Amino acid sequence: MSRNKRLAIWLPVLIAACIALGIFIGNHYWFLSQGRSRSLFGGGTDKISAILGIIKEQYVDTVNMTDLVEGAIPKIFGELDPHSVYIPAKDVAKRAEDLEGSFSGIGVSFNMQTDTILVIEVVPGGPSEKAGIQPFDRIVTINDTVYAGNKTDDTKIQQLLRGMKNSTVQLGIKRDNHPELLKIQVTRGDVPVNTVDVAYKVKEGIGYIKVSKFGRTTYNEFITAIAKLKQEGCQAFIIDLRGNTGGYMDAAINMINEFMPEGRQIVYAEGKAFPRQDFHANGTGTCQESPMVVLTDEGSASASEIFSGAIQDNDRGLIIGRRTFGKGLVQSPIQLTDGSELLLTVARYYTPSGRCIQKQYKLGEADDYDQDIYNRYLHGEFDTADSIKVNDTLKYLTVGGRTVYGGGGIMPDIFIPRDTAGITSYFTRVANSGILYRYTLEYSDAHKKEFFNYKTYEELWNYLQQQPLVSNFTNYAAKKGIKKRPNLIAISRHLLENQLQAYIVRNFFKDDGFYPIFLKDDPTLLKAIEVIEAGRAFPLADMTQEQAL
Questions:
Q1: H helix intervals, 348-485
Q2: Which are the contacts of 264, defined by CB distance < 8 A and separation ≥ 6?
Q3: What is the pLDDT of residue 45?
Q4: What is the 3-state secondary structure (H, E, C) of 502-522?
Q5: Which of 122, 80, 89 is nearest to 507 (CA)?
Q6: Residue 16: what pLDDT?
Q7: Nearest one of 314, 266, 259 to 292, comparing CA atoms
Q8: 201 with 232: CB under 8 angstroms?
Q9: Model pLDDT for residues 179-227, shown as the tens digit of each residue
Q10: Burial of 245 (0-12, 13-18, 19+ CB in 10 A)
Q11: ∠ CA(50), CA(52), CA(58), 5° rounding?
Q12: DSSP string covering 306-340
């Protein structure tokens, strides 16, 4: 083969090989240069920015970087403590509504009753009342779109009914005595969010106040409740914080101040970049000499624990119920430029005796932390005082010398187990399925003309006690697929009667009628009344938590 022929055969191969080698060498040094560039960022926060930049510029497909970041941030916060959270911009307003004291909407409570929006409550003085909406009206259309007969969820309905202040929404209303659909335009406005659910006299001289959360308006609501009860002759008070998950610390501090003499410490907080802050009573409280008891359970957290811890450590009153949640971390809200928000843990708070009642946790292990309450239940802590394990290495003293414990929640001075009287599998099923509540709505709707004529909740309650509610309800439940269980119904009869009566009364007299009925046999409340009537609301110097438990 001639030299020219060999060259003609191998030349293309050599050229291809050189091109391939050039590409390989070029890519190799490009990756090396990129590696050197990335190494400059080290392992800190700049590394995250560098990684996102590389993905944006070099990833094989186009990526929505906003979605990528929004998905990554919660994972970063998941490596911190269980209470540091990232709140997307779309959820910030909803979170604020619960604590700020109001939101913009039409001012109704509703229930999806057989695929129809049934108005349960119209806020007095609110936008809907002004427009003529009435309880038990049915909202058929919203802005000319039909929402009756379909399965639109409550969240979607809320979004449609809420909106900017002074904006309008057109509602199509079905009312019993009107054959045609009523067209009512409602101008949205501020709707109050109450955090003090109820205040009423439970016994002569004893007032009961239920606080559901600590929000922006809580202190003012609380002061109003105290004034109302004092006018009714109450000199002693029961503050119910069961199920209260907390809120604003200053609301709790202001409430505690009402019961404390001047100079008494209420709480202090400090953290790595959070200089110690101490809070003391200023002596202006209006109930400094009033006997008082605080009710707590495993759902009482954060600001609820500040309140109960201050009362306990100052020997100002007794804590009755069950061990609180155990949240002693302070979150600071940090606004970001896109409207989103960080709730970042910046400090721990301590009760006056020096206790940090934050329960144990490990960074990045929120699942185990979230299981703590369930584990307490499994270990019998809700049922027997002996199941509560205190940490003997975390002993502290109250101002009167009583021993209290840190390390996870506020231990009650008097333990009350959960109330299981009347709880059967039948009751659990009808309650959890929503059938019991649904029956009370339908019953109320069917009798609304009659029930609206009652002037007080006591009058309606007296009427209901003469009715065969349990029998009628169990027949109703059977038609809905829950078989009658006579033996279990007999065991649960009293509990069924109580809840049926309470929820029906609530539809006409709100919480002012609901709680006196719902709590009339509540063991924790009855114990608090007993303690106050016996003159034992102020802790004895020789009473330890171990003795009380």
A1: 366-370, 372-378, 425-432, 435-446, 448-451, 457-464, 469-479
A2: 280, 281, 314, 316, 352, 399
A3: 56
A4: HHHHHHHHHHHHHHHHHCCCC
A5: 122
A6: 47
A7: 259
A8: yes
A9: 889 999 999 998 888 999 999 999 999 999 999 999 999 999 999 999 9
A10: middle
A11: 95
A12: HHHHHHHHTT-SEEEES------EEEEEEE-TTS-
Determine the pLDDT at residue 541: 55
What is the three-class DSSP state of 348?
A: strand
Are the C-beta atoms of residues 210 and 515 closer than 8 Å to each other?
yes
Q: For residue 73, how far is the Cα from the chain centroid?
A: 23
pLDDT confidence of residue 501: 98
CA separation for the pair 194, 217 (Å, rounded) = 8
Our measurement of the distance from residue 410's CA atom to the centroid of its chain's CA atoms, rounded to an integer in Å, reads 19
β-pairing verdict for 196-203 and 341-350: unpaired
Euclidean distance between CA atoms 473 and 163, whole angstroms: 38
Q: Are 308 and 292 in contact, with CB atoms under 8 Å apart?
A: no
Q: Which of 110, 97, 92 is nearest to 153 (CA)?
A: 110
d(CA 498, CA 355): 40
Alpha-carbon distance of 474 to 485, in angstroms, equals 9
pLDDT of 49 reads 84
**CA–CA separation, 276 vs 354, rounded Å?**
13
Give CA–CA dist 105/290, Å, rounded. 40
Which residue, among 489, 473, 483, 491, has the nearest Cα to 437 in the 3D structure? 473
Residue 240 and residue 269 in contact, taking contact as beta carbons nearer than 8 Å: no
Tell me which residue has tokens 């409570």. Answer: 109
User: pLDDT under 50 in the chain at which residues?
Assistant: 1-43, 545-549
Q: Supply the DSSP string of 11-63, one letter for each residue.
A: HHHHHHHHHHHHHHHHHHHHHHHHHHHHHTTTTSHHHHHHHHHHHHHH-SS--
Q: Which residue has the tokens 């059967």?
A: 424
- Residue 10 has what pLDDT? 47
**Residue type (1 letter), 508:** F
The rounded distance, in Å, linking the Cα atoms of 545 and 355 is: 14
Beta strand 341-350 with 265-271: parallel, antiparallel or unpaired?
Answer: antiparallel
CA distance 159 to 157: 5
First-to-last C-alpha distance (Å) of the chain: 106
Write out the two tokens for 26: 């070029």
CA distance 316 to 390: 22
Provide the token pair at 446. Answer: 């069917």
> What whole-number distance in Å separates Cα of residue 499 and Cα of residue 508?
15
pLDDT at residue 371 in the model: 86
